[in-house]
Peptide-methionine (S)-S-oxide reductase MsrA
Amino acid sequence: MDHYKKAYIAGGCFWGMEDLFRLRPGIKDTEVGYQGGQNDHPTYSNHPGHAEGIELTYDPNITSFKEILDYFFRMHDPTTIDRQGNDKGSSYRSAIFYQDEEEKAIAKEIIEIVDASGKWQGKVVTTLEPYSTFWPAEEYHQDYLVKNPNGYTCHYLRFEDSFIKEAASR
């Protein structure tokens, strides 16, 4: 496990993101939680300023941070401010919580690639926020769509083709 890395992202309700990422090659573990807000030990009923996010544990020998972000930008709408599907508010913002300058640079590069693709009608509004404590959500939120297969999600793969591969072929 010591060669695994972690990535922290938010893109609306954490249930759907977790459900899609759990199936990706190289993703070894997922955990949903709260990040980027104003209080310690946030809960679903008290998480001011926190985004509903996900902690991804991944094997960098199988997938990269860049590939994770490429998939992230295909599974949610990164052009809506504080909204995904029916969910509204800063909890549902699109955000990348970078852990170092390299991750920040990769995130900026991917955002430029996504914007240049013209696939989304608007520009990417995903925020780049420095890593802050990731607070795991309550147990009933973990693996929610596995436990509740007909539960709500606004996440689905909107584009099959990788933004990275398309950019490389231009």
